[in-house]
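The aim of this short unit is practical: by the end, you should be able to scan a pair of folded records and say something sensible about each. We start with the first protein, listed as its amino acid sequence and then its structure tokens.
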Amino acid sequence: MSIVFRYLTRQVIISMLAVSGILLLVFMSGRFIKYLAEAAAGELAGDVLFQIMAYRFPGFLELILPLGFFIGILLAYGRMYLESEMTVLFACGVSDKQLLMKTLLGSIPVMLVVGAMSLYVSPWGMKKVEGIFNEQRQATEFEMLAPGRFQSLSSGERVTYTEALSEDKRRLEGVFIAEHSENGKGLTIITAREGSQFIDEQTGSRFLVLEDGARFEGLPGQLAYDVTGFEAYGLKIRSGSAGEKELEEGLATSALMASDDPEHRAMLHWRFTLPLIVPIVTLLAVRLSRVNPRQGRFFHLLPAMLVYITYLGLLIVARDALEGGKVPEWIGLLWVHALFLALGLWLQFGPAWLYRRRLLKEARQHA
């Protein structure tokens, strides 16, 4: 049985790693593209993108591993049913219960990894991401510039462009700035050959000192423009909004336990929910992986995925209900787990129980 257990575990793990890798690539690529767009718009610095993705990796992993393990069982066991390997195992004395127990035993490491990610590693990573976002919100416009791009800064009030930017981000070349005039005269456009950052030691204010340029002020579409040439022109650099924003995803599990906030309690239940998903979907997948060779290898995936989507969707609904105080905390999300646990037990043992009951009924009728 140890050889059989190692073989079954190896097949499931290989399928799980392949599926999880593809899912991670898809979801993380989508998130990275979003951050890349924010960096192109000047909302994020380009050098922090990979840090953010690295810190968010545990959060993706805690959601994808249960799904990857579920699909891995479906693919591995489905192939074994199609190629009659399961038939050989059953003929050699392996029962349905033994197959289920061996699979559940193999799911324990996955459940522990998901639990560690959900309860400890993922909140730590989100805390780091929050710190990066807070730093970016407090960064000056000068620090957010990227050469060769038109960037909308100051909440869309100012558009800045520079042809080149030094590595220390203190000198610019080929500067173009467009913003709405404060005196209501329309649009102000400033061009300069180069610029540098100046910090007032007394007030701590930062200024962009432009050199050898011109300032154009007027209403778009009209010919009346005020043109001013200058050798040096100072423009105050605005800092981001002060203050830090803290999300519940970044709170430590111990902090959630000590909190009475309904949103925090709902988040705590959600973190304990994720590792519980693994054994329940294992129970479901072992039964749903049975496939008739005439149906094809992937025929059983559609109903199985519908079951998983329904399971996850009900968990999200239950979390929202708990957050809104519509469900008592002692119930929490347990009712969803109990529902699908009952479904898994019925799929696994229900048909055999009905068959035995029918045989007993027929035996009594003939007696």
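Turning to the second protein, read its sequence before its tokens, just as you did above.
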Amino acid sequence: MFAALKPLLFALDPEAAHNLTLAALKTGLVPAAPADDPILATTMAGLALPNPIGLAAGFDKDAEVPDAMLKLGFGFVECGSVCPRPQPGNAKPRLFRLMEDEAVINRFGFNSKGVEFAHARLTARAGRPGIVGINLGANKDSEDRTDDYVVALRALAPLASYVTVNISSPNTPGLRALQDGAALADLIARVMAARGALDVPVFVKVAPDQGEDDWATIVRACIDGGVDGLIVSNTTVLRPPLASRHAGETGGLSGKPLKPLALTALKRFRAETGGALPLIAVGGIASGQDAYDRIRAGASAVQLYSALVYHGPGLVGRIKAELAALLRRDGFASVGAAVGAPQV
């Protein structure tokens, strides 16, 4: 069906096509994916996943269709980024397909319906099965962005399977400065204090564009602060060679060209953590081999989004089947057994 609809969707403005997709998913008329191969069951920061293939933040910004995406076969879904107060984000156009590169550039700027809207949506699905995380952002005009994360966490963490602190979007000026040593340590301390005794894992999402001195600083702040895991990585502001006419657009680049940069970042964070923190890999994942490479490089799970634009929802099932076959080929009885296992 996606193959038939793809020309129609690609004839639309990318953001309009995305909104149409969300509207279709809201109908609930979503085919249920087959049961997962048992070899794919795994755990991540204490969360039991039926498979390690997650939906990255950005697709379902306001927690409107998490159950539809779980039904399509994702092992977990991350909604957001959600900001405390509603904000429209940056001016349109702000989403670009780089078709020749199987890539996307976005400069949304944390467009969000706000915490109250997301709270209502998560409350409505309370008690349903499935791992649904919430990705938190900061309002563009906030005087205390760290407090934005605290406010959003207090409101939404009781309704989420996990919470992600997104300090790595390139589309909110100054946001990535929160990855710096002292600022990050303060942010983590305040966020973890706000979580208190609530049994909800907290992850930090980092950028792939770190300087050489930043890797160890980020890891030390996260470990010392009690963070439960890292998501590696967000979009990049770098521009590898690209064929599309949209290559010069401002914003974060995702999709196939991000793959080598994101894999390098994952390996660096794995080396710096020594396996002490679970890692979720994101960036350029479009096949079972891609997912397997990230798992062998140290990821407990992976997420994707941009690849869906080009390959459709059937990609999820194909990735899972390919990953299961690769695990069996190399003699692994589970995903967990392959995490960080050296490749010959």
